[in-house]
Write a structure and sequence with these properties.
The chain has helices at about 30-45, 105-120; strands spanning about 1-10, 15-25, 50-60, 65-75, 85-90, 95-100, 125-130, 130-135, 135-140, 155-160. It is of the alpha+beta class. It has one domain: Regulatory factor, effector binding domain (Multidrug-efflux Transporter 1 Regulator Bmrr, Chain A). β3 and β4 form a beta hairpin.
Amino acid sequence: MDVIDPPKVSQKPAFPTLGIRLVTPFAGMLKVRDTLLSELYQWLDQNTVMGFHTFFLRLHVIDMKGNMDLEVGVTLDSAHKGDARVKPGVLPAGRYATLTYREHDLRANALLQNWAADQGIAFDKTPSPAGDLWLCRYEAYVTDPRSEKRKKARQIQLNFLTLAR
């Protein structure tokens, strides 16, 4: 794993978004993500949406032995109405534990979670029978996946909303 920007806490504003949300098994989740990203790119082009920025994968509910409730989306300059499939949303404002890396998703996630635990930082999540419910946990694609096809070359920023606002 190549750490580009080490773990830290950053205050982030709210960002309006458009995204596609669904539930899928953890096994095969990244293939689903890639399919949804392709669908979102096409939708943005067909609907001539302007003022979009960073693509992301948001994890609403995490159960690595079962299903993941995820959303593939993009941040916007201003709110957009979307449609029945591509829906408007928001990445909420708050203090986020962040880490920017290249390669090895699981190791990067573990590094950020261990660092936060060592710092006494708690995440805004709630356990449930379906898995951990996160108020906001997402990975932002610093490197636009459309311009860099090699996944190992992309920079990704993890963002986990903390309880401290």
